[in-house]
Amino acid sequence: YVYLREGISPLFGYLYGWTLFVVIQTGTIAAVAVAFARFTSVFWPGLSPDVFLGFSMHFPQPIGDIAVGLSPQRILAVLSVALLTWINVRGVRTAALIQTSLTAIKTGALALLILLGVTIGRNAEALAANFGDGFWATGGVAVGLGTIGAAMVGSLFSMDAWNNVGFAGSELKNAQRDLPVAMGAGVLIVTVLYVLANVAYLNVLPAAAIAGAPQDRVGTAALHAILGEPGLKLMAAAIMISTFGCNNGLILSGARVYYAMARDDLFFKSAGVLHPEYKTPAVALVVQAVWTSLLCLSGTYTQLLNFVIFAALVFYGLTAVGLFALRAKRPAADRPVRAPGYPWLPALYVIATAVIAVDLLVQDATRTYSFLGLGLVLIGVPVYFGWRAVAGRAARTT
Questions:
Q1: 191 contacts: CB under 8 Å, gap ≥ 6
Q2: What is the CATH number of the domain that holds 175?
Q3: What pLDDT, in 10s, does the model give residues 61-73?
Q4: Residue 39: which domain range?
Q5: Which of these ranges, 40-44, 310-314, 369-373, has the smallest mean pLDDT?
Q6: Tens-digit pLDDT profile for residues 179-206
Q7: Residue 88 in contact with residue 285, Cβ under 8 Å?
Q8: Which of 108, 204, 288, 309 could form a disulfide with 121 if both were Cys (CB 3.0 to 4.6 A apart)?
Q9: What is the pLDDT of residues 268-324, one digit of tens each?
Q10: Cα–Cα distance between 10 and 7 in angstroms, integer?
Q11: What mean pLDDT is reported for the chain?
Q12: Confidence check: pLDDT of 255 > 90
């Protein structure tokens, strides 16, 4: 929000904050909360995804029918969001302790999965299916740009939130030192773990089993194939911890953006006030939780994922453009942290995000979601001027 506001214009900063609230951050929290509920159902099969109180809406493909309403899994997803919001309202210190503990546990669980997958879990059938002639083919295999773009959606979603530590930058004791280290180390560690985890999956399960994993629970399917029923439960517990910890960080960081917007008179004024006792943006946290809960009840994991990725790509690319704009607008500004590889690395990033975003817009499989995501961004334009008008009237009456 701040980078776009200062680098390009206040309108672009607001559009990011608006889209972050409407779909990027809240949609990601909702999707992760639904995933938490899905893995919890390994222990309690009664946590069904089936809606028992609600209604169905029909949309053209690829969206199709959407069942809006209550289901056991959605109720648990909402409750998990409410609990984490309450924890974050009570103070940053407790939330940070939970985040550190859960991150250590889920990192250890991923490392265990990787170790087992490349050692005792190696499956000759999976290796032949995944790394056979099709994998090494030099001809007779057609992979279009559209296929690559659609396949990138899940990968990009799994890596999203890499930038969220920046949202809480003002609360770091030594942001100049800690922010670049946290961002760089975080991206590197997550990339290595995710790549190795996928290598482990491909060693254990044929591609068809990965694609057809019940309720998209690939991790549990892999450990179940290695260790049997105990492996299924072990991995489900690990991913429950992982998703719960992930949402703790998302909830903590997202509210800081809405707090900053409210301080600029571009969000509900009460969201720009800290809790008198806990010194946290309590109203911003609660507003975020309410909207996230509505998203949990209104769509599926896959639909939220597709909305999130296109909108996020657009703004990540624009943020990198803002880096060039700031260099031109403020050449003499103090820059204690230099962008590595400037200007080539940021330029490459802008090109890559633009190519993927355009691909998502033009391909049949992702076009509808992407245009809906773009539409949500553009709706923010009149909303921005509405907030400006409200702030102007308030200033004239005081």
A1: 159
A2: 1.20.1740.10
A3: 556 667 778 889 9
A4: 2-135+142-396
A5: 369-373
A6: 888 888 988 998 999 999 999 999 999 9
A7: yes
A8: 204
A9: 999 999 999 999 999 999 999 999 999 888 765 556 666 778 888 889 999 999 999
A10: 9
A11: 86
A12: yes
Cα(64)–Cα(322) distance, integer angstroms = 37
Residue pair 210/218 in contact (Cβ under 8 Å)? The answer is yes
**Six token digits for residue 236:** 């489900």
Omega into 343 within 30° of 0, i.e. cis?
yes
pLDDT value of residue 364: 64
CB atoms within 10 A of CB 378: 10
CA of residue 58 relative to chain centroid, distance: 26
Q: Do the beta carbons of residue 21 and residue 288 sit within 8 Å?
A: yes
What's the Cα-to-Cα distance from 9 to each of 158, 263, 268, 384, rounded to whole Å?
Answer: 29, 17, 21, 12
**Residue 3 class from Cβ within 10 Å (0-12 exposed, 13-18 middle, 19+ buried)?**
buried
Closest to 36 in 3D by CA, of 69, 84, 68, 101: 84
The letter for the amino acid at 98 is I
CA 11 and chain centroid, separation: 23
| Helix pair 229-263, 10-19: axis angle to 10 deg | 150
Query: Number of folded domains in the chain?
Result: 1
**pLDDT of the residue at 265:** 94
For residues 66 and 64, what is the distance between their CA atoms, to the nearest angstrom? 7
Count of beta carbons in the 10 Å neighbourhood of residue 99: 16
